[in-house]
Amino acid sequence: MALNPSDLYDIRSLLTEEERMIQDSVARFVDEKVIPIIGDAFDQARFPKELVPEIAAMGLLGSSLPEKYGCAGLNAVSYGLICQELERGDSGIRSFVSVQSSLCMYPIYAYGTEEQRQKWLPGMARGELIGCFGLTEPHGGSDPANMKTHAKRDGDDWVINGAKMWITNGNLADVAIVWAQTEDGIQGFLVEKGMKGFAAQEVHRKMSLRASVTSGLFFDNVRVPEANRLPNVKGLKGPLGCLTQARYGITWGPIGAAIACLTEATEYSKTRILFGRPLAANQAVQIKLAEMARRITLAQLLSLQLGRLKDAGNMQPAQVSLAKWNNCRMALDIAREARDILGGAGITTEYCPIRHALNLESVITYEGTETVHQLVIGRELTGINAF
Ligand SMILES: Cc1cc2nc3c(=O)[nH]c(=O)nc-3n(C[C@H](O)[C@H](O)[C@H](O)COP(=O)(O)OP(=O)(O)OC[C@H]3O[C@@H](n4cnc5c(N)ncnc54)[C@H](O)[C@@H]3O)c2cc1C
């Protein structure tokens, strides 16, 4: 029996029936609703917001959080499969779901009060309220401890000043999770759209993640009530805890992008006739395709084991770093190679590889650059912090 080219090791057989059902339903949504429109959305630098209600109705927003807050209560492997299938469509769509779920709903759930959870989570699960996560600042995202944005207590309020940069969903957001220095260390605040002195400005001229909104956030004496502070965490471990959740999902996403590129390159090379025979009949091309399949298979096994560790409560941040580094690098290399196999046709968004390659330039940079993740593993191995 022929093997499945997208799953040479039958990794699907390691999934539960529920996990398979979730993967199939998201895959259907991506095939029917995302892939037909995403090339145009990318060309037009437009986030396809019209997809949000269906993404929400499928339970994909905050999917790992409890049903009590209107969420699906799924396990980590299911969340990973959701990310993989969405990013088979486009990294921008997966980024929207990652930010909403792991960077906004998760901190409200993990660090917030019950009132904050009730106020925000059900509406965010329904996609009626959108969130963004402001950690990175214009002067350097790899070193978040050197944060300049600060919040000062003033009576019953906090007054926030500073700026954040490269914020996904920034101009769409009803609420921003903003990390700021205080006299008591870094703390998180819920800054709401329309608060006086708070502005978002979209970043234009992006050549990557064009079907996603990226913004700068600006805080000019923004007065935020004490009720909008996340009380249950202090210090860098607050934002880093969110990033571990999001990075976990990001280890799965690029697998989807890589599968899309391998599929496109295989189909194209089978039908492109050069020198009197299909391009795919050349050893050089088959070796490239085989190399892609090898790297995808290894990434699939890595993310699945990471997910099982997470579901067992045993996942460590350095393990996430290794998978984020490996899988982003794998997908970026594959997208570029697939683009090459398509020749000139590969430079247009009629085909997916160039779009995925450009998107993956962001995915390998955000949530910790490749270098940052390598240094995390170096520190794990040596016990020496080389940052
Ligand atoms: C499309 C997009 C969406 C994003 N969304 C969000 C978001 O929603 N929220 C958010 O808070 N942030 C977001 N980011 C920001 C992202 O996390 C940062 O871009 C990233 O952390 C890198 O920070 P930087 O861009 O300031 O680069 P820098 O930190 O200035 O790094 C520049 C270079 O220096 C390297 N480097 C850093 N330290 C070392 C070292 N010690 N040794 C050797 N090399 C080093 C880096 O690897 C990199 O190559 C997003 C970014 C992009 C591009």
General description of the model:
The structure is a single chain. With 387 residues, the chain is an alpha+beta fold. Helices cover 50% and strands 15% of the residues. The chain has helices at residues 17-43, 52-57, 76-89, 91-111, 114-125, 237-271, 283-311, 317-341, 353-363, 370-382, and strands spanning 131-134, 150-154, 157-168, 175-182, 185-192, 198-202, 214-225, 273-274, 277-278. The strands form three sheets. Strands 2-3-7-6 form a four-stranded antiparallel β-sheet, with helices on one face. It has a three-stranded mixed β-sheet with strand order 1-4-5, with helices on one face. The mean pLDDT is 98. Flavin-adenine dinucleotide (FAD) binds next to strand 1, strand 3 and helix 10. Flavin-adenine dinucleotide is lined by residues 99, 133-136, 140-142, 166-168, 209, 214, 362, 365-367, 369, 371-372, 387.
List low-confidence stretches. none
Mean pLDDT: 98
**How many DSSP E strands?**
9
- The Cα radius of gyration reads 21 Å
Largest sheet, spatial ordering of strands: 2-3-7-6
Strand composition percent: 5-15%
Ligand list: flavin-adenine dinucleotide
Coarse shape = globular
Quick one: biggest sheet?
Answer: 4 strands, antiparallel
Which percent bin holds the helix content? 40-55%
Total number of helical segments? Answer: 10
The secondary structure category is alpha+beta
How would you spell out the order of helices and strands?
Answer: HHHHHEEEEEEEHEEHHHH
Distance between the termini: 50 Å
